[in-house]
Fold this protein.
Amino acid sequence: MSASVSAREEKSSAASAGGPLAAFRNVGKSFPNGVTALKNLDLAVREGEFLSLLGPSGCGKSTALRLLAGLAEPSEGDILRRDGSGPREIGFVFQEPTLMPWTTVAQNVRLPLRLKGVARHEAMPRVEEALALVGLGDFRDAYPRELSGGMRMRVSIARALVTRPRLLLMDEPFAALDEITRFKLNDELRTLWRTLGCTIVFVTHSVFESVYLSTRILMFTPRPGRIAAEFTIEASEPREAPFRTSAEYGAECRKVSAALARVMGEG
């Protein structure tokens, strides 16, 4: 880290006093194989927003998400967190559902609470609540092999929500799904975000998905990743199926697509 311990503590206190929920300051990340994924990355996560990290594959978006989650440490720079946004208050949804095939939907969702030592009688009402939020209350006793791809991803989202996180991180969770399922889960995710009032950081390489979902988009450069552009999406709410064919949506997509083309050309 570039800052001294005392400097980090001072900055952390400042973040706790009302700054962003989390912030990267001049963050870099290099790996032992010589790959530099991120360089001079500055970004802030604002409480209550739906923030998408947009960019081509390999540009460091997922690495930034893992750093934000506390699953890895930066090679340089600082990550500042407001009180209540540490790793214990974060839910993470990976690209694959990564469910345990030998146990039920309910027990898969309960796993984070078991790891926290929450007793069964306290955990199960929260499991039922999380499954209801994603529309799977009737599938609590099913096994992952009995579910469709979209349903398995809903289980993964319920598992992330069962701890009632303040910050939900999602790493291209719908990338492998067919378009119809993806659209449906996009709609459901925005409903969840409005209902729960949490903050979401969502990694995607789809311009169309980022514009539909987000209140704000940060566009990454090709590796090593840093922020090339920022967009605030001030579209009407709620965003539902008709929004996808609206002139407003089309204009926002063209603007973001043009910026991405410029960034890729410069890269």
Observations:
- DSSP finds eight helices and nine strands in the chain.
- Residues 1-18 have pLDDT under 50 and may be disordered.
